[in-house]
Amino acid sequence: MPIVPAKCPQCGADIEVDTTHEAGLCKNCGAPFVTEKVLNSQNIFITNNNDFSGASINIVSGASSSTDFANFLNIALKALDAHEGAEALKYANKALEINSVSSEAWVVKMKSMTYLATFTDPKVNETTEYGKNAITYAPVDKKTSIEDIVYSHYLQRTLSLFSIMNERIRDTVSIQNALTELKFNAPFGAEQRINAADSNNITILNQLNGAALLLKISIPTESISQNSNYQKAVLEICNQYVKYIDGLQDRYAIYKANFSEEARKAHKAELVMLEAGLTPIDCQSIPDFRKNPNVSSNSGCYIATCVYGSYDCPQVWTLRRFRDDTLDATWYGRLFIRCYYAISPTLVKWFGNTTWFKKIWRGPLDSLVTKLKHDGVSDTFYHDRY
């Protein structure tokens, strides 16, 4: 049977055309095609017509190339809208095989990385490489808009990474439970063993932090300083970074570890990198890193934090909601809060490192948290009202 390779005029996929039939169907998209029109439009010539078994087939690139490119790019864009990263990447690459300097195709390739990224491989190097190509190949009249698309994507991905990091760094329930069990069964060196077990998680989170920094510094400082929307995003990124470092410090405090002086200097240097492009007033609004890992910058939950090992954990989130939503609503509740914060720091300072102190308070606090949750008080992440 005389079969000729060609391209589907609808989707651009490779098809096989039976020249003995007047029409056929594309196996990829199901679109019908007229054999003669496909052959003529794609400049396909068949020689040695009397013997198809020895036919020489020549496919001449011409007018169909632009059609193929448009079809591939359209498919890639639709796949991107459907969050199908692999499909978007596949057809963006097909489009780039036809036109390697297409800025639009490089943008699609850049954005497809969002859906191919994983917790351990955020695809940041690929993202910045493809974004750089999109800007490099952008036509003069579209360069500004392409830059905005690329830089906005970088900022969005940076915020997304910090959101993941802050959620993961505060997920300490399993660590605290493991530490409690270890202290009960084999108390000597329990903190060090939990620290070692948690080191892989910390390494991955710090790698994500490096990836987020790379995305942000890939944006020229002058572009940020001249764009108020960029500045708003960068300011939020800086706040999220401080929040992450504070959460990391709280996590270390669970197994009685702390930052070295070198680490503190590195954190400050990274924050300066993130602040680039902001106004001095915006920089001044960014909070300092928390010094005490177990106390909030505004109003702490001293005994509860001591008992549960962190200011940011489900039990303390429940208690902080109860403090802000219930106790603070009445004069006697506010009086209790004042007395609690007047006495708690001293108690924790004197007895906070003792096992008996935590055991005494653990039972009543667990009972209170259980009752509050039964009454509908949430144990999800919480920002203090004041």
- Overall pLDDT, averaged? 83
Report helical residue fraction. 55-70%
Class inferred from helices and paired strands: mainly alpha
What is the 3D shape?
elongated
| Unreliably modeled segments | 45-63, 292-299
Oligomer: single chain
Distance between the termini: 80 Å
Strand order of the largest sheet: 1-2
Largest sheet: 2 strands, antiparallel
Radius of gyration: 30 Å
Strand and helix order:
EEEEHEEHHHHHHHHHHHHHHH
Q: What is the beta-strand fraction? A: 5-15%
Helix segment tally: 16
List the helices and strands and how they pair.
Layout: E1 3-7, E2 14-18, E3 23-25, E4 32-34, H1 35-41, E5 44-46, E6 57-59, H2 63-81, H3 85-98, H4 103-116, H5 124-136, H6 143-169, H7 173-185, H8 190-217, H9 221-225, H10 228-254, H11 261-275, H12 280-285, H13 302-308, H14 314-325, H15 331-351, H16 355-374
Antiparallel strand pairs: 1-2, 3-4, 5-6
Folded structure, characterized:
The chain has 386 residues and is mainly alpha-helical. The protein folds into three domains: 3-60, no CATH class; 117-285, no CATH class; 302-374, no CATH class. Helix content is 64%, strand content 6%. It has 16 helices and six strands. It has helices at 35-41, 63-81, 85-98, 103-116, 124-136, 143-169, 173-185, 190-217, 221-225, 228-254, 261-275, 280-285, 302-308, 314-325, 331-351, 355-374, and strands at residues 3-7, 14-18, 23-25, 32-34, 44-46, 57-59. A two-stranded antiparallel ribbon has the order 1-2. It has a two-stranded antiparallel ribbon with strand order 3-4. Strands 5-6 form a two-stranded antiparallel ribbon. A hairpin with a 6-residue loop joins strand 3 (23-25) and strand 4 (32-34). It is elongated and about 90 Å long. The relative contact order is 0.06.
